[in-house]
Amino acid sequence: MAPQIPNIKLSSGYDMPQVGFGLWKVDRSICADVVYNAIKIGYRLFDGACDYGNEVEAGQGIARAIKEGIVKREELFIVSKLWNTFHDGDKVEPIVRKQLADWGIDYFDLYLVHFPVALEYVDPSVRYPPGWFYDGEKEIRPSKATIQETWTAMESLVEKGLARSIGVSNFQAQLLYDLLRYAKIRPATLQIEHHPFLVQQELLNLAKAEGIAVTAYSSFGPQSFLEFNMKHAVQLTPLFEDETIKKIAAKYNRPASQVLLRWATQRGLAIIPKSTRPEIMKSNLESIEFDLSEEDIATISAFDRGLRFNQPTNYFPTEHLWIFG
């Protein structure tokens, strides 16, 4: 039997499951089956995005589970994100409607601004997902859209019933402060890279003070980024293999993965781990079934190095970085 997943009450009034399933890097060829199996195991929150390129297949997995009576739409919490090339105010609603059609649903439970980076519009008929480059290869073209323009369009999604809650991803404190100055609908959530090497405690404190729920991605640190051959990822000892983490895991008779996930949820964060293997999916859900001591939480937090993996400087050649600095 699947564990009872706690909810986090959002400022929008809706409940968000604290443990969800991330869809980044789930291959299209298996995505429908992965989502279907995750629902059977007990997941109710699915975190997708335009940029992941698998929303059609994720929707197929959900449709199958609903058709078989495993779950009802209203029992699911579907998250998606606005890609950088659709930040212009008049481009937000059309792309959301396309994404909803891809998923086969009428509304998103939560819709996020993926990055605080506005790029020139690329028509979905030309290339979808558009990616970072205007020409699909190397040319980056910034858009003049401001965060305020984009957020105003995001707010209209709530007013039109296309999204129940809206939020942001990969925003830092200064941008949050700016957004809160003019937001008529406050961001319900902030999604950030968060793991023992990147704790961001001051940002977490700000979010808590402003009533913004935080979702952590890449809970296992460099693990998700090894395939990109990032120097500072491949040179680190994986958290799963760290002797301190292994010692704490042995103390609770739990796998290291569960310790890392519980470190986040016990501190009030939501998590969206991903696996294509049913046994690991189940194990990740079971991470909420025990408690770490305050001493062990502090020990894990002390790993903090301010080490970020998901940022443009780790992906792009030097000539592009002026746009992000």
Automatic annotation (TrEMBL):
One Pfam family cited in the UniProt record for this chain: Aldo_ket_red
Residues annotated as binding substrate: H114
Domain NADP-dependent oxidoreductase per the UniProt entry, residue ranges: 20-303
A Gene Ontology molecular function term of the record: D-xylose reductase (NADPH) activity
Gene Ontology terms: biological process: D-xylose catabolic process
Family designation: Belongs to the aldo/keto reductase family.
Keywords: Carbohydrate metabolism, NAD, NADP, Oxidoreductase, Xylose metabolism
Alphabetical list of Gene3D superfamilies matching this protein: NADP-dependent oxidoreductase domain
Active-site residues, Swiss-Prot/TrEMBL: Y52 (proton donor)
Positions of the record's site feature: Lowers pKa of active site Tyr: K81
Upper lineage: Eukaryota, Fungi, Dikarya, Ascomycota, Pezizomycotina
Pathway(s) it belongs to: Carbohydrate metabolism; D-xylose degradation
Protein name: NAD(P)H-dependent D-xylose reductase-like protein
Keyword NADP on entry: yes
Organism: Chaetomium thermophilum (strain DSM 1495 / CBS 144.50 / IMI 039719)
KW Oxidoreductase (keyword) present: yes
